[in-house]
Amino acid sequence: VRIRRRREADLAECVRLAEVVHAQDNYPLRLPGNIRAFLVSGDAMAAWVAEEDGEVVGHVALHPRSHSEVVHVASEATGLPEDHHAVIARLLVAPRARRQGVGRGLLDVAAAEARARGLRPVLDVVTAYHGAMRLYEQSGWTRAGQITFRFPDGETVEEFVYLGPT
Ligand SMILES: CC(C)(COP(=O)(O)OP(=O)(O)OC[C@H]1O[C@@H](n2cnc3c(N)ncnc32)[C@H](O)[C@@H]1OP(=O)(O)O)[C@@H](O)C(=O)NCCC(=O)NCCS
Fold first, then answer.
1. How far is the CA of 60 from the centre of ligand 1 (A)?
2. What is the pTM assigned to this prediction?
């Protein structure tokens, strides 16, 4: 499995991957109609794919922010200004490629990019995503706090904020 920067030409495959992961794992909790826009954030710092035998089997992105409370909680924990953090987002691995280290590889490459930019990697995860939390904790990430995310229709979901290892 090779991890490399995401290219424009990967997007159709990434969208299909996101559909499969959403159907199986309910991540993201709500898949927006425009999945491409979910994966491709205008202000993303970078995004990567994991490729196996020419097929995209994983994806991750690095964003300057998540919804506002995330970096706020991280900042309280690290003591760093809010803009000294970068958020790892859109991490997903194809079901058939799991438990082979792909998720960890993607997490590590995004965290390394954050550090290379002088930023502390952080992320938010829905409290029900136990597999993802195991991955973060096994990779040295620590929980900084819990937040409640409110969707525009008023429904809420609980999330943990994690800090990457220094
Ligand atoms: C979470 C996810 C990205 C993990 O990807 P992965 O490629 O299977 O992860 P890795 O193989 O790198 O796992 C590394 C370690 O993390 C832990 N881990 C990963 N997935 C786990 C799971 N489902 N249950 C328990 N531990 C898990 C294990 O310690 C694992 O090491 P091991 O396989 O030697 O025991 C993948 O399951 C996924 O795409 N899930 C749905 C989307 C999602 O939840 N994304 C994160 C949203 S914040």
1. 13
2. 0.97
Q: What is the number of the ligand 1 atom nearest to the C-alpha of 125?
A: 48
Measure the N-to-C terminal CA separation of the chain; round to a whole number of Å: 26
Q: Record the tokens describing residue 84, joined without a space.
A: 């000294």
Tokens of 147: 């937040």
Distance CA 99, CA 34 (A): 29
Q: Determine whether the shortest distance from the Cβ of 162 to ligand 1 is under 6 A.
A: no
Q: Which atom of ligand 1 is nearest to the CA of 132?
A: 1
pLDDT in tens, the chain (166 residues): 999 999 999 999 999 999 999 999 999 998 888 999 999 998 999 999 999 999 999 999 999 988 889 999 999 999 999 999 999 999 999 999 999 999 999 999 999 999 999 999 999 999 999 999 999 999 999 999 999 999 989 999 999 999 999 8
The DSSP secondary structure of 112-137, one letter per residue, reads HHHHHTT-EEEEEEETT-HHHHHHHH
